Amino acid sequence: MIVSYKNNRLVPAVIVAACITFVYYLIDPSVENYGSPLPDWRSQNPQAAKTTAPWGTKPTSTLPAWTEPPPIPKQTEPSIKPTPIIEPNPTSSDSLSPSDILLIMKTGSTSLYKRLLIHLSTTLSPQNIPPENTVIYSDNNQTIGSFRIIDILANISTQTKSLPDFDIYHQQPLYDSNNVYVEAAGVDGDNYGPAGGWIIDKYKFMPLMQHAGTNYPKAKWYIYMEDDTYLFLDNVLRYLNGFDWRQSHYLGSFAGKSDVVFAHGGAGFALSRGAWEKTFGKKEDLPGEYEKYTSEHCCGDQVLGYALRESGVKFGENNGDGKFTWGFNPIVHWRFGFSRWNWCVPLLSWHKVHNRDVARYFELERKWKGKQMRHKDFFEEMIASDLKKRQEWWDNLSELFSVSSGNKENPPVPESSHDLGLWKKGWESVEACERACEGWENCVQWSYVEDLCKMDDKLIMGQGYAPAMSERKTALKRTSGWLKERLDKWSC
Ligand SMILES: *[C@@H]1O[C@H](CO)[C@@H](O)[C@H](O)[C@H]1NC(C)=O
Ligand SMILES: *[C@@H]1O[C@H](CO)[C@@H](O)[C@H](O)[C@H]1NC(C)=O
Ligand SMILES: CC(=O)N[C@H]1CO[C@H](CO)[C@@H](O)[C@@H]1O
């Protein structure tokens, strides 16, 4: 009786988990990542490499939470301190200002009306940066108010443009000419547009760097972002202040793929004028030389990293050593694992942001103007106020340790101090899970569903199901909880 009852409940769960994993691996890297190799940083971090079976029925939002690379051990710490935690002298005459840089925004015809518009009144507004220090690259020419959007694929060779990859480039203008809107606004006459804007996205990276350096030769830094990135510009400039723009520097969030170490595009990155001159500056047709390579590889940010390396510019904070510390984040704040390793370092970016996020981040930045914002500050301003000791119908995305009835005899245990008795009982109830977490010295959050207790030493905001959402009728209730008092130990 009992056995078959359990089996009945397991079968759908296993099928759902398998389907979601399948969807995640096959669809997400191409659609969601929009040309950026999200899966690869995971291979850098064995913990993050684990994909956990997501809960609920929302396959599009089931990426595992991002845990960052392990901190650089003391002895290998960079000799140049690129992320000053102490306030640099704000009156210092050589500190960078927005008028010293070019802020490059990359968008695409199919995402422009969904993601770019919010940036025009925030990130790219004159309040944030002089208009002449910004440029917007897309796959079509367009004007929105005072913003001119450039088709950066215009000069791609006819040979490359005849590849099937470019079908969308040729099809897109036909939507306009047939008076079909590609805005996904749910208004009459609307349409989602041709599928796969991300396919031509990778071809933009090389030409846009060439175009930026040629047309904005006075910029000390070329700072790249995408329409679903948010850059904390003040902090980014402060960070770049630690480097000489006349030298070669290629800085951002570490990513690796096809034997190339490169800056993750979605997280935002910076290329110094010195690096540009050594590479694009020496060869006007550098982009042309990499069109074939681009067609054979997945991601434009990887192509750029490869091309730069071949011309002698490598990624990394210490003369291209492949290392980076913290700050450029290829993930959004509510999936990010706040930990004691990143708590006190400056925040430089979020990726996969929504319009609402951009508006809120921008407000927060105005409030902080002139002060360095650390991950801790962001957390306290944007997340902490909603914290409860316990919340039903909420998933904190805890994932580090799982204790369930299936592994109760021999569950994985942390190296740090924990109460093994409480730990092994964690699967029994919400209360038991909370106690197991309390019994482990580094635990800051837990989640519980059915007979599964998950615990983590990082803070991940996660998501809940609002009372009106149908998932409350179709999914099992998951409860999450959070040990707020333990944060005091993370003081900076
Ligand atoms: C954008 O303008 C350039 C230069 O005028 C032109 O070569 C290119 O074909 C245009 N792009 C599209 C998609 O019409
Ligand atoms: C295309 O090439 C022309 C001629 O060299 C140049 O003026 C223009 O800026 C280029 N456009 C792009 C988008 O690179
Ligand atoms: C960072 C964090 O832990 N966030 C959420 C965890 O879950 C609680 C509910 O238990 C939420 O209120 C927090 O926002």
Automatic annotation (TrEMBL):
Membrane topology type:
Single-pass type II membrane protein
Q: Where is the signal peptide?
A: none
**An annotated GO cellular component:** membrane
Protein's cellular compartments: Membrane
Q: What is its EC number?
A: 2.4.1.122
Which molecular-function annotations from GO does this UniProt entry contain?
glycoprotein-N-acetylgalactosamine 3-beta-galactosyltransferase activity; nucleotide binding
Its annotated pathway?
A: Protein modification; protein glycosylation
Protein name listed in UniProt? N-acetylgalactosaminide beta-1,3-galactosyltransferase
Which InterPro entries does the entry mention? C1GALT1/C1GALT1_chp1, Fringe-like_glycosylTrfase
Which keywords does the record carry? Glycosyltransferase, Membrane, Nucleotide-binding, Signal-anchor, Transferase, Transmembrane, Transmembrane helix
Domain (Fringe-like glycosyltransferase): give its ranges: 218-279
One Pfam family it belongs to: Fringe
Q: Gene3D superfamilies this protein is in?
A: 3.90.550.50
Q: Which spans are transmembrane here?
A: 9-27
